[in-house]
């Protein structure tokens, strides 16, 4: 979708929102898949209410993009614009055991920065690509921990009330890859309360998690992490593997040879190919195991 009305373009500049016309979302997602639309880069959280009022008044549909690492975007010219926060400098400020983190901060860099300051707890998420805001929205987790456990406070834009609000951690429910945030809530910043731990000890945990991940996941290949959530008491990856589906392909969309719940873009896969592969695998698992796998990856299909 293109914003061409000069009045809207002028207003965007006025409220410190950068307009990047015709941006290929394939370049902004870890899967390397996705069509083209206008990208709006938000430099100040405070401009969000004005921006959303402007878009709504002009009937411009929109979506919020984080780090694009758990996302499958449709092909071609997309029927909505995309909003993304510009990362401020600094993006993490420490105050005792509290880390004040901007939602646009890179998750891995935040974990490392806190570790260097003897704050731990987040070791399991090292190696997970994406922003802190994205991790928060999905309640990212690995190796027995989840980010939600450390949340003291979240600053967010709530589309329903059209304003910026602050929620305490205990007002938010964090479940397995799911939170009580509304789909159109936009994460802006978070305060994490992290346990004190000597850097050396945290580093050891980080090394162990890195090693586990390296040995079981297709790092370095274009993917969106796990495609399906694990059904209660079972492993989606193991079921897909048991069905002998590693290497199954539709065009360049392929079930990873290393971890069967990772689907990789082995070249120039389209969203259509990836979605066909996802539907095919889901159907085969349903047939054999009677389990309907739920997407873990977020799909923005036109
Ligand atoms: N397995 C297989 N074949 C495979 C993959 C896995 O037999 O191809 C078996 C493993 O041997 C193991 C079991 O399935 O016995 C579980 O596998 P793994 O330990 O790799 O964990 P997972 O349940 O597949 C989950 C998360 C990952 C997270 C890891 C580590 C989900 C959907 N996935 O994977 O998160 O990194 O645990 O904690 O919850 C993601 O969220 O995108 C993601 C990758």
Question: In summary, what is this structure?
Answer:
It contains seven helices and 19 strands. It is an alpha+beta fold and 302 residues long. The strands form six sheets. A five-stranded antiparallel beta sheet has the order 6-7-14-10-11, covered by helices on one side.
Mean pLDDT: 97
Q: How many strands, what sense, and barrel or not for the largest sheet? A: 5 strands, antiparallel
Structural class: alpha+beta
The total of beta strands comes to: 19
Order of helices and strands: HEEHEEEEEHHEEEEEEEHEHEEEHE
Weakly predicted, low-confidence segments? none
Helix content: 25-40%
Structure description:
- It is a single chain.
- It is built from 7 helices and 19 strands.
- The strands form 6 sheets. It has a 5-stranded antiparallel sheet with strand order 6-7-14-10-11, covered by helices on one side. Strands 1-2-5-3 form a 4-stranded mixed sheet.
- The mean pLDDT is 97.
- With 302 residues, the protein is of the alpha+beta class.
- The structure holds uridine-diphosphate-2(N-acetylglucosaminyl) butyric acid.
- Uridine-diphosphate-2(N-acetylglucosaminyl) butyric acid (EPU) binds at residues 142-143, 216, 225-226, 229-230, 235, 237-238, 241, 259-261, 296.
